[in-house]
């Protein structure tokens, strides 16, 4: 098979029901690794965060990181899971140099958390967001693998490589793997459900504060399982597992692509081969990986070097008390209290400034004013500077202070932008910047009135139009006055003066 | 009675990356069956009041504080490697696939 044949998406839906399954790995932000005290930070020099335990040297003994167990329980609780009263780690045996022990310490039939769900809100065009319940089968604890670089070979890809270089800094970093039950009945919405699930799961992880959850840095990695069954048959087809799909958009695209690819194979009377697939971000396709091993082939057995984890019910309840407000409910609550439309709220969420707006409103600004500054002015500046908006250096309290100056009539919106220039340049408080830069609007009625008279005299044709009732033409005169006043006038007051004088 | 076939032994050998000749397979398969039988007889002795165990010590919840301990230096770590390059472990070409 050279290039994949694809069935048009609508035709897939006419003949097949998709079944989705998602496995998401979350790299925890603990200070140390899962089973040893090596630092779990990202970006160290190669093989400087390793010890006998994470290198799998003979005689080394692992000890469980209590903080990682705590994070695992909190994730489980936030996903409405039951928390195991007693569970063990297991060895997953496989030979690949990314795990120097030749096994990964994981959990097998005794996960720390199981039987949960997450209600996923689908994006909608208008109307109310539709909610889709995704059932969580389990969330279990395991460890990350080392990082291989393949050297030589014509393509630089694995199969062409002559040899590989391995850095074990990442080996042993705590991972939580969250596995859904098969998601059935999503139909045409399967790609959107997959995306919304991963996106909301990330929001939840961020709210819990247990991971940096950056997909681009691999803190959060999604594997997409997909199968098709003949429409209405109620059976489950053979699945493929597309590994390491590393953006929300790619999750959606990968589901869609696999649906179309599976349908083409099934339509031609062939069978789906159970295998892992590699996702290619650039071309938006998947290619064959390895045949999927049976769980038996991993020869799981209980890890003899670790004792069972048996979280007391008191501890579990204590951790339940630390859960943040559910991000979906929080979003709904804030949208209602701010009176934003769905579209406005979606833009706010997409820009990642919900928390900033919340704090700006708490500092006294109106929700509409807070949205305006964060979404237009500050997003644009962050974008221009190539930084996250939260790293821009403007605080919610400062935004509220700038808006207070606008509300008091001290500056207009245009001058307020110059106040932000001053804030970013570190020139002091908004009040000090207005003072130093001489930004206050001119409230001298005499000066304003003179400027309006001058503008009328210089634009007689415009003035005539307004006299004839074409009020819309006033903009030209207001513009001329604002220019004359170097922007330091209250445009609303100028408009009033123009209309007073001409109508 | 538990029994392990010659094919199963061959499969396990592949999984464990142990290269066995036909003669070795013929020799080992019956031996492993005997071992399995012997181990299985323990299950018959253990009554329902004896729970299966994976650890000899009746302990749970042995946790470590999340506090960084000194790591090895890269030199120490790589000193044990047959081959190293660019401060990384050099390993033979990989035919399998990443997990």
Automatic annotation (TrEMBL), chain B:
<dbReference type="Pfam" id="PF02686">
    <property type="entry name" value="GatC"/>
</dbReference>
<protein>
    <submittedName>
        <fullName>Unannotated protein</fullName>
    </submittedName>
</protein>
<dbReference type="GO" id="GO:0006450">
    <property type="term" value="P:regulation of translational fidelity"/>
</dbReference>
<dbReference type="InterPro" id="IPR036113">
    <property type="entry name" value="Asp/Glu-ADT_sf_sub_c"/>
</dbReference>
<dbReference type="GO" id="GO:0070681">
    <property type="term" value="P:glutaminyl-tRNAGln biosynthesis via transamidation"/>
</dbReference>
<dbReference type="InterPro" id="IPR003837">
    <property type="entry name" value="GatC"/>
</dbReference>
């Amino acid at each position: 098979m050279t290039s994949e044949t694809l069935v048009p998406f609508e035709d897939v839906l006419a003949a097949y029901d998709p079944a989705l399954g998602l496995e998401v790995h979350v790299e925890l932000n603990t200070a140390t690794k899962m089973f040893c005290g090596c630092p779990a930070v990202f970006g160290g020099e190669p093989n400087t965060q390793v010890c006998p335990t994470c290198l799998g040297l003979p005689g080394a003994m692992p000890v469980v990181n209590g903080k990682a167990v705590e994070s695992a329980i909190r994730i489980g609780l936030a996903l409405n899971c039951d928390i195991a009263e007693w569970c063990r780690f297991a060895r997953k045996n496989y030979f690949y140099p990314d795990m120097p022990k030749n096994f990964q310490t994981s959990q097998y039939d005794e996960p720390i958390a199981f039987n949960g769900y997450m209600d996923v809100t689908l994006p909608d065009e208008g109307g109310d967001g539709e909610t889709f319940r995704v059932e969580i089968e389990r969330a279990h604890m395991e460890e990350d693998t080392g990082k291989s670089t393949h050297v030589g070979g014509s393509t630089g890809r694995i199969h062409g490589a002559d040899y590989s270089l391995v850095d074990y800094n990442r080996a042993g970093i705590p991972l939580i793997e969250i596995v859904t039950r098969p998601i059935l009945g999503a139909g045409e919405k399967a790609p959107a459900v997959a995306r919304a699930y991963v996106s909301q799961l990330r929001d939840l992880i961020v709210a819990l504060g247990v991971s940096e959850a950056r997909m681009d840095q691999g803190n959060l990695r999604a594997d997409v399982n997909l199968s098709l069954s003949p429409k209405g048959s109620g059976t489950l087809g053979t699945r493929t597992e597309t590994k390491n799909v590393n953006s929300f958009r790619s999750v959606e695209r990968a589901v869609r692509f696999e649906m179309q690819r599976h349908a083409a194979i099934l339509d031609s009377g062939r069978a789906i081969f159970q295998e892992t697939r590699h996702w290619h971000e650039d071309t938006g396709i998947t290619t064959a990986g390895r045949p999927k091993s049976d769980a038996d082939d991993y020869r799981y057995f209980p890890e003899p070097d670790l004792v069972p984890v048996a979280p007391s019910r008191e501890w579990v309840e204590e951790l339940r008390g630390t859960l943040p407000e559910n991000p979906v409910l929080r979003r709904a609550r804030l949208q209602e209290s701010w009176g934003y439309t769905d579209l406005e709220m979606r833009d706010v969420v997409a820009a990642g400034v919900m928390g900033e707006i919340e704090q700006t409103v708490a500092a006294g600004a109106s929700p509409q004013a807070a949205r305006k500054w964060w979404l237009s002015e500050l997003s644009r500046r962050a974008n221009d500077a190539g930084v996250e908006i939260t790293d821009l250096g403007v605080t919610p309290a400062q935004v509220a202070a700038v808006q207070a100056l606008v509300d008091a009539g001290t500056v207009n919106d245009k001058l307020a932008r110059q106040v932000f220039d001053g804030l970013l340049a570190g020139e002091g408080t908004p009040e000090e910047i207005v003072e130093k830069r001489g930004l206050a609007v001119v409230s001298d009625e005499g000066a304003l009135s003179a400027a309006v008279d001058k503008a009328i005299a210089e634009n007689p044709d415009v003035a005539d139009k307004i006299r004839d009732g074409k009020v819309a033409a006033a903009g030209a005169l207001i513009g001329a006055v604002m220019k004359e006043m170097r922007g330091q006038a209250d445009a609303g007051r100028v408009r009033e003066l123009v209309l007073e004088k001409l109508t | 009675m538990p029994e392990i076939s010659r094919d199963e032994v061959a499969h396990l050998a592949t999984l464990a990356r142990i290269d066995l000749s036909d003669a070795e397979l013929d020799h080992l398969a019956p031996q492993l069956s005997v071992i399995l039988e012997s181990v299985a007889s323990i299950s018959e002795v253990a009554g329902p009041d004896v729970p299966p165990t994976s650890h000899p010590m009746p302990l749970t919840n042995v946790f470590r504080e999340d506090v960084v301990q000194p790591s090895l230096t890269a030199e120490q770590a790589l000193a044990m490697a047959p081959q190293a390059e660019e401060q990384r472990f050099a390993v033979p070409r990989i035919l399998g696939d990443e997990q």
